[in-house]
Amino acid sequence: MIRTATRDDVPTILRFVRELAEYERAAHEVHATEADLERDLFGPTPAANALIAEDADGTPQGFALWFTSYSTWLGKPGVYLEDLYVTPDSRGGGHGRALLAELARIAVERGYGRVEWSVLDWNDPAIGFYKSLGATPQDEWTVYRLTGKALDDLGRR
After folding, report:
1. Is 130 among the residues known to form the active site?
2. What confidence tens digit (pLDDT) does each residue in 16-63 have?
3. Does the keyword Transcription feature in the UniProt annotation (predicted)?
């Protein structure tokens, strides 16, 4: 049901990214192209990794896109899950659990200290699913982001 993504999956991954962004009410924020994903997943210095969830006939039903992070407190690398998406018709069929289980397996096999991700505070179905797996919210942390003009301004000083 779960396999490592290949170059041939790039159009499907981008479609899933767009569907996820639409679900998260942020479709207008997706600027990624197939060329971007191909470069950053399969180029000479990959920035991220992807897994594909398939149904029994091999049709992609979801994906997980992740990269390695590092915890100075643990003194170990970890997995940061950027995107987890399962098509609406396949939700509840075990694809999301299988994707997260594969990420956990990768982390354990490599000796990583954690798997972490962010979830929108209004996404109750996802929050309930994550809690059912034993994941715990990190309520004491607030995510900050530099992007666009603010990033350019600071980076050019």
Report:
1. yes
2. 999 999 999 999 999 999 999 999 999 999 999 999 999 999 999 999
3. no
Contacts 24+ apart (CB under 8 A), 125-133: 125/91, 129/96, 129/97, 133/97, 133/100
Do residues 100 and 84 make contact, with C-beta atoms less than 8 angstroms apart?
yes
Distance CA 11, CA 45 (A): 20
pTM of the complete model: 0.94
Q: Which of 85, 112, 130, 144 is catalytic?
A: 130
Per DSSP, the chain holds a count of helices (H) and strands (E) of 5, 5
Single-letter residue type at 11: P
DSSP-assigned states of every residue in 47-82: --EEEEEE-TTS-EEEEEEEEEEEETTTTEEEEEEE
Instruction: List the domains of the chain with CATH numbers.
Output: 2-155 (3.40.630.30)
* Separation between Cα atoms, residue 135 and residue 127, nearest integer Å: 9
